Amino acid sequence: MTVEGGLDEPGELEPAQGSLHLAAPEDAWTVADWEREAAAVLRKGRRLGADDADDLVWAKLTRTTLDGIGVTPLGIPADLDDLETSGRPTRQGDWDVRAYVDGRDAELANEESLLDLDGGVTSLWLRVDPDTDLAVLLKGVLLDLAPVVLDGADPAAAAAYLTGRELHPETNLGVPAAAATAEIAAAARKLEIRGFVVDATRVHDRGASDAQELGWSMAAGAAYLRTLADAGLSVDEAASLVEFRYAVTDEQFPSIAKLRAARRLWSRVLEISQAEPREMRLHAVTSRPMMSKYDPWVNMLRTTVAAFAAGVGGADSVTVVPFDSPLGRPDALGRRIARNTSHLLIDESHVAHVADPAGGSYAVEKLTDDLARAAWDVFGRLDDGADLDVEIAAAVKRREAEIARRERPITGLTEFPHLDEVLPERTPTDEWDGVRRYGASFEALRDEPPASAVFLATLGTVAQHTARATFATNLLAAGGIRAATGEHDGQRVVCLAGTDAAYDEQGADTAARLRSNGAEWVIVAGKPRDWADDNCAMGVDALDFLTRTREKL
């Protein structure tokens, strides 16, 4: 099978022919009204000039993804003009709460699995070795009620263990789609379960963008269909045996759109393959690269947003990675919070009780369409022999540049770091080998803090220097560097913080006095000055600045 034709499916969604206005005339707002009010706010924040046109707010507030897709600040009916979309969520009711367990220590994993199941988890995703004792690992697990997805098992041994047992139909042998064979497919069909997984989190963990993750998954799915079709199965039989796994991040709307786009893409692949329409089985996992090992408690917030996006996007199963996973094997608290995140969203927020919550949203429909088209382009390039590694490397470079400039802030790491925090102790594990966290470069600086501090010299009153002193202190802390105050005690590196007026009046003399007292490198918080060696301000490449500063220390 080759990628032929476009992604469009005409007639799925027609632009509205009219609209019903429920607001009173005096409460009705136009796009121009919004532009005017938004521009007024941006002018107060000095993000727009007095003479700038109001409609510049679109350029200022639209965020561009790594795939070059604009995430609009306001959805409007015109977003649906000529838009053709599909892939709406098909899940009805609560999603499957799926816990991930490292099952290579079968006895420990069995204890953790049973605790998770007692706590409300409804399925298990188990990492195992080919020689893992499944009898020990799954002891006490009611396989007819709780489906298990095996990751790394010997398929023949797994099938042999499961034979003769009553199984939930969403049980999965967990064989990577790239390793699919007719024999494994036959074993899965005999057991009346699934056999294969297209795991796109593997490329996500390497730094792939959303479109690259989706495009890769379609390429992997198409190759899987080809393999089993060549082995004698029908495309419909092959499609019934596979589920897809995607990562969801704390970028809420792109994550919602990703899952909706995935359905549209797979539907198109099946159509091209002349298969019957079939619902896509979709497993969403909260992103591991987005998590940080410093201030790991913030991971609870990140995974909550990601799980919400997964539910709204219609994931059939959702795995929340425990907040303490970057530190090692998660403990009981981490696992409890992970499973309860879904419970709170389902049972208290009632997210699962609404059919397709994002459906009809101008912004989400447009973003879904744009992402699906970008992913289809990636799929086509891969089918033509493009090197995915090269494309991922480019996405990683763009992301890391944005993180270095703190345009993609990481709370607790690049923003508001706490140098005196005591990290929870966890048992080391190799679970995160091959995962590059988005804040890895900053974490490396925190791992080896310099012995010396930067002296913070403030000019003027507290009210005058607080803003820049706080900015400089937090920026330095992001690189593991402490800021010392009080009397200058010969520190080699100093940072001056004050107003521009104070710099004009006192800056040069203060810098000279500090140099006479042993300072060798003078930084100014704000715009560059002739009497300073370096400066730090909003928009600076923080990683580059911190590396230079540490070298001077």
TrEMBL record:
Name the UniProt record assigns to this protein: Methylmalonyl-CoA mutase family protein
InterPro entries on file: Cbl-dep_enz_cat, MeMalonylCoA_mutase_a/b_cat
Subunit-structure text: Heterodimer of an alpha and a beta chain.
PANTHER family per the UniProt record, alphabetical: METHYLMALONYL-COA MUTASE, MITOCHONDRIAL, METHYLMALONYL-COA MUTASE, MITOCHONDRIAL-RELATED
Domain of life per record: Bacteria
Record-annotated Methylmalonyl-CoA mutase alpha/beta chain catalytic domain positions: 196-487
Organism listed in the record: Nocardioides conyzicola
Entries under Pfam families matching the protein: MM_CoA_mutase
